[in-house]
Design brief:
This protein has two domains: 123 residues, no CATH class; 284 residues, no CATH class. The chain is built from 14 helices and 18 strands. By secondary structure, it is an alpha+beta fold. It is found in: Nucleus. InterPro entries: RAI1 (IPR013961), RAI1-like_fam (IPR039039). Its EC number is 3.6.1.-.
Length: 502
């Protein structure tokens, strides 16, 4: 399905959601009649198909076969939906299912004309170059994204960088570490060193996209748009961001506790996405207990027990643990029609000389409370594995090695989770998360951003905000504190010569 059809579907869903949400201010019968009218338009489409089918039976049979293979809305499913009565809830349910299933865009193409006639003033969609209407929103309702898994191209590592003990940037892999497999019951004491051998990164320093931008300046020749010279300023990329920001998008349809704010700026054709700390997150950070701080340390300590600085080295759990240090991969991929460039921290790599090339050689290290009851295992599948899967699937990291610890912070068991098998682990959980919902929401969010963030200006920020069980909304800010592209990046990208940084 092309981009226009995808946008039409999003437009239909947003409009109908808006109509439903305004039931307290409008006559519910009006809203029901509107949806009935939209369904009638679809019925006309079916009748038209029948006429064409009689004239061109052979051609239509081939088209139907192709539609069945691609998951397009079938006439039978439409007819079934239309026969199910006219209650408001029934209409909502059936229309949502039809829209979600309409991968060819044929239904939304018919319905859009009806919507245009009845669209409220505050639901207009801007064309390219116009100021967007900030009343537009994007739903996170899971059922809207239960369609075929979108195209996600195998991530390719295009570079890496390191941050040293003082958080200085280096355009190389000097901070890479190597995984050393421990015993299955290692009895690691994760509390060790917290009081006397721990240098904690300053969380109050907001680095935004700065390290990623430094990497871009040092590697512009790798990112030049096709058909341009190596010194071109324009990147062959739609979105630049951190892996963690994309992880928040993947998990949003299932997140029930923490909201987020993402700042977006379009600059020289590329959309940059940076996180903005919410008030709730700031309060949580200020109110962390000593126990919470120590438990955050446990994850880093587990890495110290299982990672060596050199390929033939051994872990040094007696050394100083400095969380300023980091090794980050930079990967390029494509989700649907969105070309992505993002970076994420990598814990370690497989030290086997025959291991596959990055990112397939990377390993994510995690800790989790030991699982003692069926309820704990169910919660682990529903919540913890969702975030682990999203974080590793995006950059193409193939496995997570987990240390399960007791209440005293002692690792009592180890388990490896291949990312490709996590979806099988959760399939028997009732009403559990679905990878296809995660990826389709992320894809539609990026389409939404492309649609609203139209002004190419480093001083303009589109602030997208979301709270659990709410829609994604946005506001536009000009020359505001939300601006995040630094002057040194803007100036360098508009100059004629690429930069060469250490």
């Amino acid at each position: 399905m092309d981009v226009a059809a995808s946008r039409d579907r999003m437009d239909c869903v947003r409009f109908l959601d808006a109509a439903s949400s305004q039931q307290t201010n409008q006559n519910p019968k009006k809203v029901a009649n509107l949806k009935k009218e939209a369904i009638k338009e679809a019925e006309k489409g079916i009748q038209l198909c029948e006429k064409v089918k009689k004239k061109h039976q052979s051609k239509m049979d081939k088209m139907q076969h192709r539609a069945d293979n691609t998951g397009s809305v079938s006439e039978a499913s439409m007819a079934s939906a239309f026969s199910k009565g006219g209650t408001m809830s029934g209409i909502n349910e059936q229309f949502s299912k039809l829209i979600a299933a309409d991968k060819s865009g044929s239904l939304t193409a018919r319905v859009k004309g009806t919507l245009q006639k009845n669209r409220p003033q505050n639901q207009s969609v801007p064309s390219r170059g116009q100021n967007p209407d900030s009343s537009l929103s994007l739903s996170t309702r899971r059922e809207l994204y239960e369609r075929d898994f979108p195209v996600y191209k195998q991530p390719v590592e295009v570079g890496c960088f390191s941050l040293d003990s003082e958080r200085r940037f280096f355009n190389d892999g000097r901070q890479m570490r190597y995984y050393v497999e421990p015993d299955r019951s290692p009895n690691f004491d994760l509390r060790d060193g917290y009081k006397d051998r721990f240098i904690k990164r300053d969380d109050s320093v907001k680095e935004k996209l700065d390290h990623m931008l430094r990497w871009i300046l040092a590697n512009r020749s790798k990112l030049s748009a096709r058909g341009t010279t190596a010194s071109s300023c324009d990147l062959d990329i739609d979105f630049v961001t951190w892996r963690g920001h994309l992880t928040k998008l993947l998990t949003a349809p299932y997140e029930t506790r923490e909201g987020w704010q993402l700042a977006v700026t379009r600059f020289r054709g590329t959309l940059y996405i940076s996180e903005v700390e919410t008030e709730a997150a700031r309060r949580d950070q200020e109110n962390r207990t000593e126990r919470h701080e120590e438990m955050m340390y446990w994850g880093y300590k587990f890495e110290q027990y299982t990672c060596a600085d050199t390929v033939h080295g051994q872990p040094d759990p007696g050394g100083v643990l400095n969380t300023n240090e980091a090794f980050c991969t930079v990967v390029q991929t494509r989700l649907a029609d969105h070309r992505l460039l993002f970076s994420g921290e990598v814990d370690c790599r497989d030290k086997d000389p025959n291991a596959p090339a990055a990112p397939a050689c990377y390993i994510e290290l995690k800790t989790s409370a030991e699982i003692c009851t069926p309820k704990q295992r169910s919660n682990f599948h529903r919540f913890k594995l969702l975030k682990w899967w999203a974080q590793s699937f995006l950059p193409g990291v193939p496995r997570v090695v987990a240390g399960f610890r007791d209440e005293e912070g002692v690792v009592v068991a180890m388990e490896t989770f291949p990312i490709s098998k996590i979806s099988h682990l959760i399939k028997n959980e009732h009403n559990c998360w679905k990878p296809t919902v995660c990826m389709n929401f992320c894809s539609d969010f990026l389409s939404f951003v492309k649609h609203i963030a139209t002004e190419d200006n480093p001083s303009v920020v589109y602030l997208l905000s979301w709270e659990p069980r709410r829609d994604v909304t946005f506001s536009v800010h000009r020359d505001s504190p939300y601006c995040f592209l630094p002057h040194w990046f803007v100036e360098e990208m508009t100059s004629s010569q690429p930069s060469h940084q250490s």
